[in-house]
């Protein structure tokens, strides 16, 4: 067993010759990388949600964790020495991921009880007092006979005994550490030959050692700005560009607001406060949010209505009529025969039965409108809309809205209806004495009128102000206020569009945007907003525009983007106990039209209008650049290019970003005259065909051109499909780049190191300029790939910690991909592969080119090499692909791995096309195998898996359990195998013991494991 530190040494076998002085010095990230620790730190950062440093600036999709960016930049800058263990120690020390760093980052302490449990294992309980309490419990305290320094020293020792995951719970993130102690810098400088006293000084000195100047890091797909921001923050000169100006604005805001220091943040907030107060006064003067009782609205709930073609009734549409789980508030439909419609009543504090009825009585189920009085009467949305097929093409049935439309016309299929308002009532309580205790009671209106000096009494603490939220159905006065809103907007509409205060841009057709036209008839971006939203946002823009143009004002531009993200007709109402609030527009990566939606009133916009970062950093921005630019037109040189390119249309950035750009259209040129305000969708590199591949080759060829010979690139990549990897290999190869290393970091959603569920690995490929002129033949590459794949896996397996695994099974398969790419791109030419031809030729369905075949071979090698523990290689190679798939799947279940993608990769590696019959469920993040007892006698056939030895063993386990006698299972095997039983008995025992051992570690396999244990014993004791 190797220790936790040694588990982090993940060596990457080199396929290049040693450095002779003419080649780049091998960097730390090209020799090893602390995959597990960086994954865990990335997860911690991701789980901070809105506490992440840059997410508060505005919505963008796929921002990479800042700690990952920091780690890869440092990994590129730090040279690999002849002492890899010391390299790793120093690298982790700089990132505060070593023992000293974790102690430095500790902001919370384990409880005394937790420390005591650790002390028991270490034999250090003498530092504690154990006092018996009257209730029989033991109270633990630190023994005060020891000095504070002694207690602190023992806490430090015990804290170190915790695993990395457990220590991380008590720690702040690395980015929140101001600096390392000078003693740590002495260690770092001694090893690296530097004189730094801060991370910024170290980065600059390492850059000068490599390039003769401070390192410059560029990102040509900068998106939300993670890479340029973190590069600048740790001391690099940063260059960021993006084709889309919305992305450029967010990246600019990252550097100039979060990176502007406390004074800049205060300056921006001051400007925001002035605009907010002026807008508040205007909204109040209009009288559009206050009711007759003086309550102010904070949320409005709308739904779509449509006429049922069968009953003729106008039906309000919503998938559920629950408004608040905590407040137990529901909407109730009441048929109004006089108007052929339904009244909507709002009830709060209802019974559990009424809540359940509201959940179940939604008038939208799937793609159907359901009649509230008869759920058997349902009409598909396509029929409602009048969609048709003409000449094999879909024809949309809805009327297309015109620019002047801000509400539906009376003849439109879908109407929009306000059905609930949440008001905030302010009331007061007074403190009184009752039974010798102070209690608070509510003041009546009559009592409140008599209070002469409310502010003094509040200050004295005898009266306090309180608020409560009240849901009501809109009355006639509320509907009049809706009419006032509409009239105010119409009076300003044309002028505001001209000034750019509200959008005037048409929605261009696309994968995401076409549904807006099909499902609602919306053709302009302002159609996605209610009149109330347009009026409020337009007011903010008008007031912002009235300010003198200065830096603080243009920094407020991102606040407009934050507001519209948190308020459109695509914003759901979250009725859950924890929330009862409107969500943001982009709750997923799509433009989803909704049947019911929520609108924030003015006071509720303060959370999105004001930028209130938890922390800010002062970044000196002398040589930092953010620009709107096509990657193929870049002429700026960078020592390192770190990119997370769009790939295979995983996210339609160019369409989604138009949602924001429609609001920025006239202000970006005003605030940033050097930028354009067009999304440049025609230039976007997207899709999967010839144009996409050519665009990617042109992009990476240009980046390689604008990089020194000793520079490097990091390409971040998430796909696991071998066809996509084959395309990527061809793209990088054609761009004159060579893969020198690749690491998989778990960066997304849930914990890779806890449950294995939901995780998506980001592959960070390290690339250098290709300088070789060497050529070879494809047949000679295969044995080379086999060698490097097996060497890679040997290194990873030897260095992994079984108790605290650094890798998942997916990591091993991705390592095989990377190994194949390293071999492939190490040659200038591999005959008979014609790179340009492969990139341009149309690919037929199911067709594989030589590169994809090579990558598939690498995966096959890896899959066959990774013999599950408990099985020997001689047995493994005799098994059928389906048997290997099943036994390997059982192994990953013991790791808590239930992702469907893992099984897809196994199937691909073993060459299996159909495997669903082996699964109990294929649901996302719940995928698992059928157990022996779940299989029963299903699939016992004369071919395929049904005829295999493993399938027979599984049924024998089932028979043992059902008949409570292992002889029954053994006799079944004898009857099936006949003369082959004795020659295959040892294999039967091995497989059965494997099932027993692994099954005992899986909750739903416990009965199977017990039966397998009995069967294995019976087989072992069977003699001729």
What this model shows, in words?
With 1024 residues, the chain is α+β, with helices and mostly antiparallel strands. The chain folds into four domains: 4-13 and 19-206, no CATH class; 296-416 and 477-609, no CATH class; 688-862, no CATH class; 868-1020, no CATH class. Helix content is 43%, strand content 15%. The protein contains 40 helices and 29 strands. Strand 10 (364-365) and strand 11 (368-370) form a beta hairpin. Residues 1-22 and 749-759 have low confidence and may be disordered.
Write the layout of secondary structure elements.
Elements: H1 4-7, H2 35-46, H3 66-77, H4 84-94, H5 99-105, H6 112-122, E1 128-132, E2 138-142, H7 148-161, H8 164-168, H9 182-192, H10 199-211, E3 216-219, H11 226-233, E4 237-242, H12 245-258, H13 262-286, E5 296-307, E6 314-317, E7 322-324, E8 329-336, E9 341-347, H14 352-360, E10 364-365, E11 368-370, E12 378-380, H15 381-385, E13 388-390, E14 393-395, E15 415-434, E16 437-442, H16 445-450, H17 454-460, E17 463-472, H18 476-499, H19 514-520, H20 531-546, H21 551-555, H22 557-565, E18 573-574, E19 581-582, E20 596-600, H23 606-609, E21 625-628, E22 640-643, H24 653-656, H25 658-664, H26 668-671, H27 690-705, E23 712-717, H28 722-734, E24 737-746, E25 761-769, E26 775-777, H29 778-799, H30 809-824, E27 829-831, H31 835-840, H32 850-865, H33 873-876, H34 881-893, H35 900-910, E28 919-921, E29 928-929, H36 932-935, H37 949-963, H38 966-977, H39 980-999, H40 1006-1020
Parallel strand pairs: 3-4, 3-22, 4-21, 22-23, 26-27
Antiparallel strand pairs: 1-2, 5-6, 5-15, 5-20, 7-8, 8-9, 10-11, 11-12, 13-14, 15-16, 15-17, 18-19, 23-25, 24-25, 28-29
Helix pairs in contact: 2-3, 3-11, 4-9, 6-7, 13-20, 18-20, 27-28, 28-32, 29-30, 29-32, 30-32, 32-35, 34-35, 37-38, 37-40, 38-40, 39-40
Region (Disordered): 1-20
Protein name: DUF1156 domain-containing protein
Domain DUF1156: 32-94
């Amino acid at each position: 067993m190797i220790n936790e530190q040694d588990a982090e040494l993940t060596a990457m076998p080199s396929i290049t010759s040693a450095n002779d002085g003419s080649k780049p010095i091998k960097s730390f990230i090209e020799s090893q990388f602390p995959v597990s620790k960086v994954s865990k730190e990335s997860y911690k950062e991701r789980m901070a949600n809105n506490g992440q440093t840059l997410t508060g600036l505005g919505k963008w999709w796929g921002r990479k964790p800042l700690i990952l960016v920091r780690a890869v930049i440092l990994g590129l800058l730090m040279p690999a020495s002849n002492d890899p263990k010391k390299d790793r120690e120093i690298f982790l020390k700089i990132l505060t991921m070593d023992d000293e760093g974790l102690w430095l980052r500790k902001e919370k302490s384990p409880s005394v009880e937790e420390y005591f449990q650790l002390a028991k294992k270490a034999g250090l309980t003498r530092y504690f007092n154990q006092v018996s309490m009257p209730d029989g419990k033991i109270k633990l305290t630190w023994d005060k006979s020891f000095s504070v320094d002694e207690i602190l020293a023992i806490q430090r020792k015990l804290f170190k005994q915790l695993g990395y995951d457990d220590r991380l719970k008590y720690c702040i993130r690395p980015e929140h550490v101001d600096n390392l102690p000078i003693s740590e810098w002495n260690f770092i400088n001694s090893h690296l030959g530097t004189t730094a006293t801060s991370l910024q000084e170290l980065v600059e000195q390492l850059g000068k050692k490599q390039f003769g100047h401070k390192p410059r890091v560029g990102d040509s797909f900068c998106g939300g700005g993670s890479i340029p921001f973190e590069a600048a923050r740790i001391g690099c000169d940063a260059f960021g560009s993006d084709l889309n100006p919305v992305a450029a604005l967010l990246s600019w805001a990252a550097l100039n607001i979060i990176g502007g220091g406390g004074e800049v943040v205060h300056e921006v907030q001051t400007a925001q406060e002035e605009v907010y107060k002026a807008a508040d006064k205007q909204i109040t003067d209009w009288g559009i949010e206050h009711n007759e009782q003086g309550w102010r609205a904070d949320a409005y709930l709308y739904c779509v209505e449509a006429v049922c073609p069968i009953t003729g009734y106008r039906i309000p549409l919503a998938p559920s009529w629950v408004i608040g789980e905590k407040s137990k508030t529901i909407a109730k439909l009441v048929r109004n025969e006089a108007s052929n419609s339904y009244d909507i009543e709002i009830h709060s504090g209802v019974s559990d039965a009424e809540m359940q009825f509201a959940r179940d009585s939604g008038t939208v189920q799937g793609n159907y409108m359901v009649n509230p009085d008869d759920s058997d009467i349902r009409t598909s949305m396509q029929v409602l809309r009048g969609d048709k097929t003409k000449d094999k093409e879909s024809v949309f049935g809805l009327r297309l809205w015109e620019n002047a439309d801000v509400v539906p016309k009376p003849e439109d299929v879908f109407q929009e209806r306000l059905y609930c308002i949440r008001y905030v009532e302010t009331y007061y309580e007074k403190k009184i004495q009752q039974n010798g205790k102070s209690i608070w009671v509510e003041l009546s209106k009559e009592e409140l009128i008599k209070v002469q000096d409310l502010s003094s009494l509040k200050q004295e603490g005898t009266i306090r102000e309180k608020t409560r939220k009240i849901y009501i159905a809109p009355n006639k006065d509320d509907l009049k206020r809706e009419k006032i809103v509409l009239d105010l907007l119409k009076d300003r509409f044309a002028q505001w569009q001209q000034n750019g205060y509200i959008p005037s841009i048409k929605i261009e057709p696309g994968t995401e945007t076409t549904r807006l036209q099909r499902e609602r008839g919306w053709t302009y971006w302002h159609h996605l907003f209610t009149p109330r939203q347009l009026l409020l946002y337009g007011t903010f823009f008008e007031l912002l525009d009235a300010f003198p143009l200065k830096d603080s004002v243009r920094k407020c531009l991102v606040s407009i983007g934050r507001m519209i993200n948190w308020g459109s007709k695509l914003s759901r109402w979250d009725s859950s106990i924890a929330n009862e609030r409107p969500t943001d527009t982009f709750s997923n990566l799509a433009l989803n039209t909704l049947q019911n939606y929520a609108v924030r009133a003015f006071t509720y916009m303060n959370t999105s209008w004001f930028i209130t970062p938890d922390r800010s950093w002062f970044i000196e921005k002398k040589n930092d650049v953010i620009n709107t630019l096509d990657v193929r037109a870049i002429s700026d040189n960078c020592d390192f290019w770190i990119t997370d390119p769009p790939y295979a249309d995983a996210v339609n950035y160019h369409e989604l970003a138009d949602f924001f750009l429609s609001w920025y259209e006239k202000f970006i040129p005003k605030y940033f005259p050097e930028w354009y305000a067009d999304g440049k969708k025609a230039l976007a590199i997207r899709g999967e065909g010839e144009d996409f591949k050519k665009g990617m080759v042109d992009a990476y060829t240009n980046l390689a051109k604008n990089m020194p010979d000793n520079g490097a690139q990091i390409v971040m990549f998430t796909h696991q499909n071998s066809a996509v990897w084959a395309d990527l290999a061809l793209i990088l190869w054609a761009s004159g780049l060579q893969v020198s290393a690749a690491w998989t970091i778990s960066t997304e959603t849930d914990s890779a190191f806890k449950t294995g569920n939901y995780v998506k690995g980001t592959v960070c490929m390290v690339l250098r300029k290709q300088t070789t002129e060497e050529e070879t033949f494809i047949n000679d590459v295969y044995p080379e790939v086999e060698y490097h794949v097996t060497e890679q896996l040997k290194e990873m397996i030897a260095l992994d910690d079984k108790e605290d695994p650094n890798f998942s099974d997916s990591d091993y398969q991705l390592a095989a991909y990377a190994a194949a790419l390293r071999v492939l791109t190490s040659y200038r030419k591999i005959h008979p592969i014609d790179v340009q031809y492969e990139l341009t030729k149309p690919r037929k369905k199911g067709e594989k080119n030589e590169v994809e075949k090579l990558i598939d071979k690498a995966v096959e090698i890896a899959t066959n090499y990774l013999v599950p523990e408990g099985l020997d290689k001689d047995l493994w190679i005799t098994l059928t692909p389906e048997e290997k798939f099943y036994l390997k799947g059982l192994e990953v279940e013991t790791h808590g791995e239930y992702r469907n993608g893992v099984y897809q990769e196994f199937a691909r590696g073993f060459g299996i096309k159909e495997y669903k019959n082996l699964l109990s469920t294929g649901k996302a993040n719940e995928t698992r195998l059928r157990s022996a007892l779940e299989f029963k006698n299903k699939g016992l056939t004369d071919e395929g898996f049904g005829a295999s030895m493993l399938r027979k063993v599984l049924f024998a386990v089932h028979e043992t359990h059902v008949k409570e006698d292992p002889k029954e299972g053994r006799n079944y095997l004898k009857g099936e195998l006949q003369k082959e039983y004795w020659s295959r008995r040892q294999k039967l025992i091995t497989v059965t013991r494997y099932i027993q051992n692994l099954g005992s570690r899986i909750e739903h396999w416990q009965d199977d494991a017990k039966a397998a244990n009995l069967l294995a014993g019976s087989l072992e004791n069977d003699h001729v």
